[in-house]
Specification:
By secondary structure, this protein is mainly alpha-helical. The protein contains 18 helices and no strands. The chain has 3 domains: 116 residues, no CATH class; 153 residues; 100 residues, no CATH class. About 2% of the residues have low confidence.
């Protein structure tokens, strides 16, 4: 259009007007298009950008179109050669129109940038809200494929969202989604396993991954928030959930967070995780693994001492299930044997624990524990420690 104008009327675009128009156009494209590009490239991960463009850019074509119309109008109105087409009585309205259009352009661009690109935290917050809101609707309406896509996007966010406030808000949104699904599960047909499968995915691939991803240092507050969320899910599941395979998964995730915290030497998180696992009936293997790793990886004694105390308390309970009681006994013996093998004060502590055993220790108990660690878990160092403890306690030296 402008090429035709220049061809038929070369004087139409005067130098002063061209400079003004060029400045307006340049400012517009730099401000409205450059700022989002800068924010995205600098602060937002690539996978997160893809999710954002798929979900939160519907308003962009409208804003861009209106802005282009305003710029074109400024090109035309700002030209002094157009004055001959405007009557003298209306000349004083032209500056007001130009100012109004410029004001509208700035307001429109500022609103869009502020509402969509105010900060990386704002971007991640809006994405979390949008995905969870959409996921609730899709799940309630039975749109399985769309819901799976929502979970896929949440999985990407679990990896990419930054530590601190962004991850805190992300986990809060995950909690809302989990509560929504559990509440619907209680009203649904007991034979419907759809919710169990979906909850497994959220717990393992989203909540757990968000605070154990790639070995990076995770905020202590985020880790504790994830522990509280997993414990909350365990309590909220009720009797229906406790008979599903979700409980071992929750215990597994608590253990994984504790092991990640162990690598970070974040012992407050480790103790918090062990406390929550200890409140779950029969999850003694996870307690043993955390304490054993602390003992051998970091030479930390506190988790092992806490685990032994909790296992001793479990053995004193009137447990009806023989398998659960046997598991607690094996894990207790394994930890005591490892501490005994370490020597020094740990050996003395192990001896005291053995003396306080609620049932008399027999060679067969140690044989059973040896087989459990050797065959079931593949913890050969612990199996050797159990065998060594048996020799010292029950086999006469030559």
């Amino acid at each position: 259009m402008f090429s035709m104008i220049l061809f038929f009327n070369p004087d139409f675009l005067e130098a002063e007007w061209l400079a003004t128009a060029a400045a307006i156009a340049t400012s517009f494209f730099v401000f409205v298009m450059g700022v989002p590009a800068f924010v995205f490239q600098t602060f937002v991960a690539g996978n997160l950008r893809d999710v954002y463009h798929e979900r939160l850019t519907k308003a962009w074509p409208i804003v861009f179109g209106i802005s282009i119309i305003i710029v074109i109008a400024l090109f035309i109105i700002g030209n002094t050669a157009i004055d001959k087409y405007i009557s003298g009585d209306n000349q004083h309205f032209v500056p007001l129109i130009v100012i109004g259009l410029l004001f509208l352009l700035v307001i429109l661009a500022s609103w869009y940038l502020w509402s969509h690109f105010d900060s990386p935290y704002g971007i991640e917050k809006r994405l979390s809200e949008n995905i969870v809101k959409t996921a609730k609707k899709n799940y309630e309406n039975g749109h399985s494929e769309a819901f799976d896509k929502d979970l896929e996007h949440l999985g990407i966010m679990a990896v990419e969202v930054r530590n601190g406030a962004s991850k805190k808000y992300f986990l809060e949104q995950c909690e809302k989604l989990v509560e929504f699904i559990i509440d619907l599960q209680k009203k649904a047909d007991p034979k419907d396993r759809r919710s169990v499968y979906r909850l497994r995915h959220i717990i393992k691939e989203i909540i757990c991954v968000s605070v154990t991803n790639n070995g990076e240092n995770i905020s202590t507050n985020n880790q504790k928030q994830a522990l509280d969320l997993l414990s909350h899910i365990y309590n909220k599941l009720g009797s229906a959930g406790r008979h599903s395979n979700l409980i071992p998964l929750i215990a597994h995730c608590l253990k994984e967070i504790a092991l990640h915290a162990l690598r970070q030497q974040n012992h407050g998180v480790i103790m918090d995780a062990m406390e929550k696992i200890g409140d779950m009936r029969g999850r003694y293997k996870e307690l043993f693994i955390i304490a054993n790793k602390a003992l051998f990886w970091e030479n930390r004694h506190e988790p092992a001492v806490v685990a032994v105390r909790k296992l001793e308390a479990a053995l004193r309970k009137d447990e009806k299930d023989a398998k659960v009681r046997q598991l607690a006994y094996h894990c207790w013996l394994g930890l005591v044997a490892n501490m005994h093998a370490k020597g020094g004060a740990l050996r003395e502590f192990a001896r005291e624990s053995l003396d306080k055993s609620p049932q008399a220790l027999q060679p067969t108990h140690l044989d059973d524990a040896y087989r459990y660690f050797f065959k079931n878990l593949g913890y050969f160092d612990t199996a050797d420690a159990v065998r060594a403890l048996r020799r010292e306690l029950f086999e006469k030296t030559a």
